[in-house]
Write a structure and sequence with these properties.
By secondary structure, the protein is α/β, with parallel strands linked by helices. The chain folds into three domains: 111 residues, Copper Amine Oxidase, Chain A, domain 1 (2-Layer Sandwich), CATH 3.30.457; 123 residues, Nitrogenase molybdenum iron protein domain (Rossmann fold, 3-Layer(aba) Sandwich); 143 residues, Nitrogenase molybdenum iron protein domain (Rossmann fold, 3-Layer(aba) Sandwich). The protein is built from 17 helices and 27 strands. Strand 7 and strand 8 form a beta hairpin. The longest helix is centred in the middle third of the chain and has 21 residues. It starts with a helix and ends with a helix. It is found in: Cell envelope. One of its GO terms (biological process) is iron coordination entity transport. Keywords: Signal, Transport. This is Fe/B12 periplasmic-binding domain-containing protein. Belongs to the bacterial solute-binding protein 8 family.
């Protein structure tokens, strides 16, 4: 009797499953499309997503881009040649070589019906094309050229640049984040040749002088594919630079988020930039949620002492933009002056340096301590000790590199980490 009931139950379940439409019983796998310069491609073996990785037919794409492909069935090794570049990869192995240099793929190449499928990112890295993923249409978008419009003109690149020159410190920081080693870059203001927090990633990069006056002859000698400059520093030499190589100019030296987005689009690293900016927004939201009510909207004074013994306050720049994003305000006395950089020539004007918090990124430019003596003169005076921030123990000397001189994405992250400490949120 029990067996009959169990058999009847199983038959009923089987009947129900058989009647459920396939679209309900198991969601259909969404197809993956590929376009090259806007033209949809068709392949004998369709691209697919495996374990979260988008895999595409490498040979067909390489040949469509003008490459030649050979395959050794015995070693299961494919060799691709394109534009003077040789790519070697092996079925089932994450290890590959580009011009003899070892690279690691996100996933091992997969052989499907005699077609080798490789991770989408590797297509861009190895074949010199820009690759982006359109989530809404499940499309891998490949571009063989890109045109960048900027304040000083329009620049077209006919392939992802390999020999990159970067002419401002924030851009050097960003290149490290994007895992692109420039062939040449301007040196740091202090801690030459490059700031200590990124120096190990720039071994072999040639220094090109100060960002305010880069060495043009040295740039020519490097034969770059692209020069990445910034309007604030290089508007006067843009014409000269653009004759050397295609030159992309960012708008604002201090706008690290825009600079990151521009550089990521030039260097085919948009996925890294997108991930970093998403994490940044989460951390900003976390900081603001943890900040106590008494500090929300606090007036922040950003200052430094100058080599000539004067001082200044900043209502502009890298650190200022970050404080604005975090919801802080500017001291009313500084706003009343109506200047972005407020000169404070003497102790009689010292009230202009005050705020609910004072952050001081005075820089020991020459390393001889002379400017620190000027700083001591300011901070040991009776008028200084009467400032509200000082009386409330809210005056902090901070890292001049990551708070001011660098101006890149990694520096922004380090500055925000510091702020967790200064506001007691750790």
């Amino acid at each position: 009797m029990i067996r009959r009931k169990m058999l009847s139950l199983l038959l009923a379940v089987a009947l129900i499953v058989a009647l459920v439409p396939a679209t309900v019983a198991g969601a259909a796998v969404k197809s993956v499309n590929v376009t090259i310069d806007g033209k949809k491609q068709t392949y004998s073996v369709s691209p697919r997503i495996e374990n979260g990785r988008t895999l595409v037919p490498y040979r067909a794409i390489a040949e469509a881009l003008g490459g030649t492909v050979s395959y050794d069935a015995k070693s299961k090794k494919a060799t691709i040649k394109k534009s003077g570049q040789t790519i070697e990869l092996t079925q089932g192995s994450k290890s590959a070589r580009i011009n003899g240099s070892a690279v690691t793929l996100d996933a091992a190449p997969l052989n499907v019906s005699g077609t080798l499928l490789v991770p989408l990112r590797f297509v861009g890295e190895s074949l010199g094309v820009w690759v982006t993923w359109n989530q809404s249409s499940s499309t891998a978008v490949l571009e063989t050229k890109r045109t960048f419009k900027h304040d000083l003109g329009s620049t077209t690149l006919n392939g992802v640049p390999k020999r990159v020159v970067v002419l401002f410190n924030g851009g050097v920081d960003i290149s490290v984040l994007l895992k692109v080693k420039p062939v040449g870059a301007v040196e740091s203001y202090i801690q030459q040749p490059f700031y200590e927090y990124i120096r190990s990633n720039l071994i072999g990069t040639k220094t090109l002088g100060d960002e305010t006056q880069p060495n043009v002859e040295a740039i020519v000698a490097l034969k770059p594919d692209v020069i990445i400059a910034t309007k604030d520093r290089h508007e006067g030499i843009y014409g000269q630079l653009s004759k050397i190589a295609p030159t992309i100019v960012t708008k604002d030296l201090a706008d690290w988020q825009d600079n990151l987005q521009v550089m990521s689009k030039v260097l085919n690293k948009e996925d890294i930039a997108t991930s970093f900016l998403a994490d940044w927004k989460k951390q900003v939201a976390d900081f603001k949620s943890k900040l106590p009510a008494k500090d929300k909207g606090a007036a922040i004074s950003i200052i430094r002492v100058n080599p000539n013994g004067t001082a200044r306050a900043y209502n502009t720049g890298f650190a200022y933009k970050i404080f604005q994003e975090l919801g802080f305000s500017t001291p009313k006395a500084q706003l009343a002056v109506g200047q972005e950089i407020i000169p404070v020539a003497s102790q009689e004007q010292i009230s202009l340096l005050d705020g609910d918090y004072i952050f001081d990124f005075t820089t020991d430019w020459d390393g001889d301590g002379a400017i620190l003596q000027h700083q001591k003169t300011w901070t040991s005076s009776a008028l200084w000790k009467n400032l509200n921030a000082v009386k409330n123990n809210k005056y902090y000397k901070v890292n001049s590199v990551t708070w001011n001189l660098s101006g890149g994405a990694l520096a922004a992250k380090l500055m925000l980490d510091d702020l967790y400490f200064y506001f007691g949120l750790e």
